[in-house]
């Protein structure tokens, strides 16, 4: 018994080393390695990499990914503050650019390439080409905080801008007669009114 106790109290150092190495070798590498990307997805997100679903917004400056809840919350999370950019935050409240573009194209398809002159003025002829095209106008509608910003971005004439303002005011007051006077078909009135109200409800006339 004394010999056993002594042996246990003073183990062979070489034997201990062999035991430790055997245990370490038996542990799966997945247990030893800590996957930081699972804990902090934005740390492993590099420029060109896709963001994780729970942090889908990529900062354009450094490629870091942040959660949607941090967009336009009043505190910049991207190093360059892009997540608080006024145009981005305005567009986030507006109808998607694709939806706006499709709406404008449907009016042109229904009424002809010069129809949108009745909304945006003389520069809106030829399918909006003098204003940069349908996509440019759709993006500007989404990003412009107010109708004044919209007019400035597209260099609209003051008279054309005031006409556009009168159309929005009429819709705001529930006067569909203004839309009918522009040649909007009865079958289109609901869609046009709904679209313009979306802009109104996000401060376009403020």
Give a concise summary.
The chain is mainly α and 206 residues long. The protein is built from 14 helices and 2 strands; from the N terminus they run αααααββααααααααα. It folds into 3 domains: 2-32, no CATH class; 36-85, Irregular (Low-density Lipoprotein Receptor), CATH 4.10.400; 93-200, no CATH class.
Characteristics of this structure?
signal; LDLR_class-A_CS; elongated; 3 domains; two-stranded antiparallel ribbon; disulfide bond; 14 helices; Low-density Lipoprotein Receptor; mainly alpha; 57% helix; 206 residues
Provide the number of structural domains: 3
In percent, how much strand structure appears in the residues?
Answer: under 5%
Q: Strand order within the widest sheet? A: 1-2
Task: Classify the oligomer.
Answer: single chain
> Overall pLDDT, averaged?
80
How many distinct helices? 14
Q: Describe the largest sheet.
A: 2 strands, antiparallel
Shape summary: elongated
**Gyration radius, rounded:** 31 Å
Terminus-to-terminus distance = 94 Å
Query: Which spans of ≥5 residues are poorly predicted at pLDDT below 50?
Result: 1-9, 13-47
Helix content: 55-70%
Order of helices and strands: HHHHHEEHHHHHHHHH
Number of strands: 2
The secondary-structure class comes to mainly alpha
């Amino acid at each position: 018994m004394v010999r056993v106790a002594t042996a246990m109290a003073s183990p062979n150092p070489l034997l201990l080393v062999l035991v430790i190495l055997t245990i370490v070798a038996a542990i799966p590498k997945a247990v030893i390695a800590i996957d930081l990307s699972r804990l902090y997805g934005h740390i492993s997100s590099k420029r060109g990499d896709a963001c994780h679903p729970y942090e889908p917004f990529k900062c354009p400056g450094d490629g870091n990914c942040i959660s949607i809840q941090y967009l336009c919350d009043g505190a910049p999370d991207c190093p360059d503050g892009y997540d608080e950019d006024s145009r981005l935050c305005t567009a986030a409240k507006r109808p998607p650019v694709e939806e706006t573009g499709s709406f404008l194209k449907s009016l042109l398809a229904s009424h002809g390439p010069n129809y949108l002159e009745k909304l945006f003025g003389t520069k809106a002829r030829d399918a909006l080409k003098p204003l940069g095209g349908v996509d440019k106008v759709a993006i500007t509608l989404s990003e412009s905080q107010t109708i004044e910003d919209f007019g400035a971005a597209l260099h609209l004439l003051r008279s054309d801008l005031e006409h556009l303002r009168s159309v929005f005011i009429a819709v705001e007051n529930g006067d569909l007669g203004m839309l009918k006077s522009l040649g909007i078909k009865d079958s289109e009135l609901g869609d046009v009114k709904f679209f313009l109200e979306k802009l109104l409800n996000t401060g376009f006339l403020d």
